[in-house]
Amino acid sequence: xxxxxxxxxxxxxxxxxxxxxxxxxxxxxxxxxxxxxxxxxxxxxxxxxxxxxxxxxxxxxxxxxxxxxxxxxxxxxxxxxxxxxxxxxxxxxxxxxxxxxxxxxxxxxxxxxxxxxxxxxxxxxxxxxxxxxxxxxxxxxxxxxxxxxxxxxxxxxxxxxxxxxxxxxxxxxxxxxxxxxxxxxxxxxxxxxxxxxxxxxxxxxxxxxxxxxxxxxxxxxxxxxxxxxxxxxxxxxxxxxxxxxxxxxxxxxxxxxxxxxxxxxxxxxxxxxx
Length: 274
Ligand code: FBP
What we know:
globular; 8 strands; alpha/beta; binds 1,6-di-O-phosphono-beta-D-fructofuranose
């Protein structure tokens, strides 16, 4: 079976995925800088901006999203990417692992998912298990013809013990994680920003043309954030999957206005920043 199209979550081949799974991954603390962002409908509304090509939600919020659309007659919401695994940071674990809590069947048949998302922690002692779980997810998604976005975040005991490891933004580590997206059959791979355009070039050199998107990271200034996104796209990346740098802002639409030409036209942010 061939790769499936990513057309439903891209525009001119690039993507701006609005990630809103932080209530799972980090907890309500991520909403404190902008309390209205704790209300999913606020973020659903932000996702209606033209720049957004998909919204990434955990199962329960995805159910809420579809009800919100139906109840309010909304037909211009962002395409839905259902994140089928995730974990909280509450328990003490022996290493990184992200359990699957939504089947691809449920995501597609009951939530009408346009795409599937899965976090892979290569380097953890649970890597082998996650590969097995990913295999089932990827193969089922292929049956439905929906694309799979891999959040590829190498981390954990095994990788930390490697003397050459300098952290999860080390370009060699990011490039290895991106390569795994290609090897394991993802259609898009989402990676930490490796600190520079050169770092992203190293990522592109590893992926054989697979679509890549930059992971937003913690909130920074408009200028710094736009620069990182520009460097990613200039190095051949296909855009962005972003949460905090959008929903922790007072005016998320203002930044989306500026991201749109950078991601979809390759514009230099110095020309678009107000
Ligand atoms: P941000 O843009 O806020 O970094 O969101 C991207 C993302 O991958 C989210 O989907 C996820 O909740 C979070 O980062 C996980 O980040 P980490 O595991 O590094 O804490």
